[in-house]
Amino acid sequence: MDHATLNIKPRILYHVAKAAWEGTLFDRREEICTMVSEEFKDKHTRRQVANQIRIAMGLNPHNDDQILNDYDEEALMGMGNESIIITNPDACQSCPAEERNCEKACPLQAITRDDFGKVSINQEKCLGEGHCIQACSFGALAEKSQFVPLINLLKQHSHPVYASIAPAFAGQFGAEVTPGKLRSALLKMGFTDVLETALYADLITMKEAFEFDQHVKTDQDFMFTSCCCPVWIKLIENKFPDLMEHISPSVSPMIASARVIKQFEPDAKVVFIGPCIAKKSEALLPDLKGAIDYVLTFQELATIFEAINIHPADQEDHEKAIASWGGRVYAYTGGVSAAVATTLEKLIPHKVQKLVSLKVDGIPDCQKLLEQIRNGQFTANFIEGMACKGGCVGGPGRLLPPEEGREHVKKYGAIALANTPVENPQVYAILARLGHESGMPSLSGKSPMAELLSRKLVQD
Fold it and tell me: Among residues 295, 272, 317, which one has the least CA distance to residue 182?
């Protein structure tokens, strides 16, 4: 049997999503396990199939051919605190030593194996970006899925449920799938409405412009940005804690979207949809938990669409585009820097000539740059880091190659009605609803608006 066909994850996700949507998952779980085992004609994978179903249901693998135990149903009600990227060790047994691509894909050597070849993850080293999952052709590494409780939530109609969709979505679901068609598909799934995360990136862009003005006063001052990349922030926290004081205190646009929506509707649920696996871990961080309720990758959403027979290309085009060019270009490397520079020019014209930006992507290059900064070898004062090559469009949950995704985002950004958040009336509409009907509120320091858009990074 071709070992590559042992990666049963796509089939598992499809069957689990379909059964969850039909309300038959608990009744049919063992049937699905048997069906997939027979489909792949390998008796040895019975436990692997059972564990892949558990992972798709948001549970940890266990040593049993049966899928659920007595304590699992409660765990399925929402996101836990456990690690998002987990191992299914049974699937490693057929992996040839020379083809252990997961180890090669991990730049921090967080993946190791025991004497029997079973994989394990050092969670202290792991940054959670998830490219190891892409590299594994067996499905031995996987991220927990959260769509089972999400599907239940959508079908219960007990809360307004908003989809906050990352700007990298452009083109991901097919060239013919316009933003308006994708919105209609999500509404058909049961979402109350669809938010452009890029609109909340507009708010964060303005905040970071003010933060830059406040913190960068001399040639020795500098500021780390890319609050949108949790892996970049975690890398600094874990390996360069002496540089943490230079991190922008802004939350990510994902967190900002949920916090703002819940200011308007406290009982709302917010689901982030994007290309980033690490966003699942970000949503559980102690100072951020409670904002985002669930996270889906583009790959997971595409599987759900297939399973429940919704075809985005066939939907009506009901666009509700409200973000600026600056918010949309957060999706690729250099976009955050460009957005802040153009916004700074509008907000604080005398300061823009003092912004000297530097962008870097990929964890190895991020580490190299941080070492240089620690040693005083830098000339920039506004430093943007992205863990994935190409930026968010290179995230492991994407559907398109990074270069193709970037081109779609560039086109989507180009048709925005506003160039910067300063010129975007939708930004002022949000501020007015939050009680700031005249003038620009303070977005740095300790003001209520600044606090809403801030996080508290813990330093030793």
Answer: 317
| Cα–Cα–Cα angle for 17, 20, 22, rounded to 5 degrees | 110
DSSP symbol at 381: S
Whether this model's pTM surpasses 0.85:
yes
Range 153-453 classified under CATH 3.40.950.10? yes
Q: What is the pLDDT of residues 201-247, one digit of tens each?
A: 999 999 999 999 888 888 888 988 877 899 999 999 999 999 999 99
Rounded Cα distance between 329 and 338, Å, is: 8
Residue 84's pLDDT band (boundaries 50, 70, 90)? Answer: confident
Domain residue spans of the chain: 1-76, 79-144, 153-453
Beta strand segments in 203-258, E: 223-225
Residues 6 or more apart whose CB falls under 8 angstroms from that of 186 comprise 163, 165, 194
Closest CA to 238 of 111, 127, 112, 383: 127
For 165, the 3-state DSSP assignment is strand
Question: What span, in angstroms and rounded, lies between the C-alpha atoms of 88 and 97?
Answer: 17
Residues 6+ apart with CB under 8 A from 459: 241, 244, 245
At 389-437, the pLDDT tens digits run 999 999 999 999 999 999 999 999 999 999 999 999 999 999 999 988 7
Q: Give the CATH architecture of domain 79-144.
A: 2-Layer Sandwich (3.30)
